[in-house]
């Protein structure tokens, strides 16, 4: 018997075909996120929920899936949209899609670093507004990238992939991570460990690569921003609420820091209104994993995870493995 699956948004064609072949599919295909009521109605009677990072999967949704719901497969590596504790209480495995979006996200982080340093957003706006009057010796001078110091806050897969790209641009690397790497790993990455406050104070570019948890809420607040150099550029491709966005807008406006390249925001898709008018901020709409290859791989992994659970197997990527037997 094919498992009954509720899918909350359309995924790339290859993933849709696989779902159609291997599952009894019910899907919310509207071009907007499902509402709480649509999530609850959709999941009722299903074995699996294939959701994404904009769906809030709380105790009420899990309750609506009871007693049939056996797995929540998130289309995303981050899973702060899911009440994992509530799923664990119900012995429902929650899965995610790590690994496959590492390179795409690191590419975007480096693109934001370059775009912010070299004022690409500002330059593009000038040209498109037909206000460019010609080359000038002092026009839009940006920050030097080669030889500068990149500080990584969080040094997991994506942070290390960014470090690899940064080495090719001759950046010096310093990092802070909850757990310090082994000497061999540090040698391999070329990054030097420093306490978080020192990384903030010493780096020309600070890039965030921590998961969003209660501990990392507003990790970058007004005090952290005040520690940074007035020329420093902050890059965030992790999660919006890791940064106090109102404090960041103020810091960018007041010159506390030099710029920011942001892919994620505290209350997506809303942004702090103060950000819109700032020329020193490059703002993009949560595009970290947005390549067709990456999104296809993410979908395939989410399907692998849910099919494994429904087939009585261990899912490859479970974030609450304590619910799995054996
Ligand atoms: C994730 O998977 O957590 C990403 O933010 C989606 O791009």
- Percent range of helical residues: 25-40%
Oligomer: single chain
User: Which percent range describes the beta-strand content?
Assistant: 5-15%
Helix and strand composition category: alpha/beta
Strand runs, count: 12
The parts where pLDDT drops under 50 for at least 5 residues are none
How far do the termini sit from each other?
A: 25 Å
The topology string of helices and strands comes to EHEHEHEHEHHEHEHEHEHEHEHEH
Q: How many separate domains make up the residues?
A: 2
* Gross morphology: globular
What is the residue-mean pLDDT, rounded to a whole number? 98
Order of neighbouring strands in the sheet with most strands: 8-7-6-9-10-11-12
- The rounded Rg comes to 21 Å
Hetero groups: (2R)-2,3-dihydroxypropanoic acid
The CATH superfamily of the largest domain is known as NAD(P)-binding Rossmann-like Domain
- CATH fold-level topology of the largest domain: Rossmann fold
Main sheet characteristics: 7 strands, parallel
CATH architecture of the largest domain: 3-Layer(aba) Sandwich
What is the helix tally?
Answer: 13
Name of the CATH first level of the largest domain? Alpha Beta
